[in-house]
Specification:
Blueprint lengths: L6 E9 L3 H13 L4 E6 L3 E3 L11 E10 L3 H14 L15 E7 L4 E2 L4 E2 L8 H10 L12 H7 L2 H4 L2 E2 L26 H13 L12 H12 L7 H5 L3 E3 L7 E12 L5 E11 L3 E3 L1 H12 L2 E2 L1 H16 L3 E10 H4 L10 E8 H4 L1 H12 L1
Parallel strand pairs: 10-13
Antiparallel strand pairs: 1-4, 1-5, 2-4, 3-4, 3-8, 6-7, 9-12, 10-11, 11-14, 14-15
Helix pairs in contact: 3-4, 6-7, 9-10
Bound molecules: zinc ion.
The site of zinc ion has 6 residues, from loops.
Length: 375
Amino acid sequence: MSTQPYVETIISLGSNIEKERYLPEAIRLLRRHRRIDVRKVSRFFESAPVGGPEDAQDFFNAAVLACTNLTPEELRGELRHIENVLGRQRSEDKNAPRTIDLDIAYYDGVQGEFDGWSLPDPEAGTAPHVAIPIADVAPTFVDPVSGKTAYDLMLEVDAAQEAVRPVASIRLATPYEARGPEDFDQTGDVYAPQLESIVRAQLLEIGENPEREGLVRTPLRVAKALDFLTKGYATSLDDVVNNAVFDAEGADEMVLVKDIEFYSMCEHHMLPFFGKAAVAYLPKGKIIGLSKVARVVDLFARRLQVQERLTNQVADAMTEILDPLGVGVVIEGQHLCMMMRGVQKQDSSTVTSAMRGTFKSDPRTRSEFINLASS
Ligand code: ZN
């Protein structure tokens, strides 16, 4: 894992081929990147193409404020990868129409020349279609070259020159600024076009009519729900722990956090399983904020899982973060795939455990943990 700290970056986006689809899709892929933590997304703006072929369509532009622990070169590589995934064809003509264009406008306060590109992006404070979305998402961000804020730079560019205007009808569905649970029903207009069309196809396959009133917005809601329930793929352990490990010389008592509620989905049926986790460790000079323990559980629960692996991953993560004398994890879960099909009694539950270090080698430590966890 990279030891580089998280820094702020602003990424600018543009699309003029199927832009209603590709722009939100690109933002979704950024959000799901484990090392790019999207904090805020600008409104969408529409602008006339600069240069390029006669019949080129207008662009949608946006900007994203994110934190990352990738280096500038690594980040640029990841943006290129997302462009490729979204079918970007590169050509000699720098003004050619494109499904998606992703550029690093700013990376912290870095000023520099790289292999054929530079930071900040020279267009960041000068081209209206770049500067206006940036000012929308991060008005107080200071341009390291001019020392001016993004807002002041936006006032200086001539918006009329590229006919830049906000697109009123496009609103992304997710409250990107909130890190808590999202409301699946409070839906906007665009979320994850590809995922939504898959859900629509699924409705057809089971004999439903996706156009009937109750189902019209279902693909959007399901896409949002799925995105949220598998959020763990988009989050790194680094990001979860971020600065909450403390030195604690002499702390040698067991730390136990129990009754941690979790909700996950089984990887065999993509149906929920849920229950409670107990996580304990015996410190060796380092402790972690108690609320972070629940977030570590969430990080692994919000993926497609089997309960045994979830249990082991939590134990291994605690070991990685704290290098403690030992770790114990017990999870009790109820699986809807069993309960709903009546294969087993509805009140059956599954208990799994994972022991590391002294929790494995010392029976007294283990039984102290089991006693505390089940009391
Ligand atoms: Zn299952």
